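Recall that a protein's primary structure is simply its ordered list of amino acids. Everything else, from secondary elements to tertiary packing, is in principle encoded there. The following example makes that idea concrete.
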Amino acid sequence: MMQFGIFVALFIAIALCFLLIPLWMKPKCVAQTDTSDINVQLAQKKLQVLEADLENFVITQAQYESLRNELMLNLHRDLKKTDSQKIDETKGRWLAIPLAVLVPLLALAIYSVKGDLRAFDDVTLTQSEAAKRPTPEMINSMVEKLAQKMKDNPQDSQGWLMLARSYKVLKRYDESVDALRKARALTGEQPEILLQLADVIAMEQGGSLRGEPTDLVTEALEIDANNDMGLWLSGLANTENGKLNEAIALWQKLQTHYPQGGDDYLEVQKMIDQARDALAKK
């Protein structure tokens, strides 16, 4: 709400500047005893500006004729004035004070009727953001539609991968494994698919990489020895099997892929330190 108030005050201040500065900055008094020549010169200059605007297509011919006639009429009126006149530099300044008061009041009155003062409340914003998030029912509905689409187009490997990731998010691991196996059958032995399959099977096994997940990780590293996910999972698999030195070596290799001191680097270092601590306790 405070942020909203600041924005309102800023915009009102800008509006007042446009209104009050022209009123306050009136020209000084000028005695006009014989201004015929001046008026003629000014009219000529204005006419030249109109002609330039017409040539540059700023105004149309009809607008030009109208403005020129108005200019000639004003010049005629000015030339008929023979008495001295004085322009009061304070004329109109009295409007500054009521405008400074009325403009903010009018703006607030209009917003109180047409606007919503809750628009910038933290609670309102939080509720609005929450309303935009898909509900579990919406997610399930979208996943089911994708599953139906894959039944109609079973040769779409990318569709199976997308469906597998969706099932994984929903923790439907058995269905995710099935979708990944279908993608694997279509694409062949791709490291990323092998590693995703190993990861989901491990989740299905309660987090254990023993058995098929370890075999899949090993196969993936044989194809791509520098795969980040492969090195990470292989280190976890070796740790689970008691091969801590092998795990440390794999993670040290993985660590060289990241900038020293970065989040990924430090996360790997944490795993290395835990493995070293486990070795020291043996």
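Residues 136-280 form a domain with the Serine Threonine Protein Phosphatase 5, Tetratricopeptide repeat fold (CATH 1.25.40.10). The chain has two domains: 2-128, 136-280.
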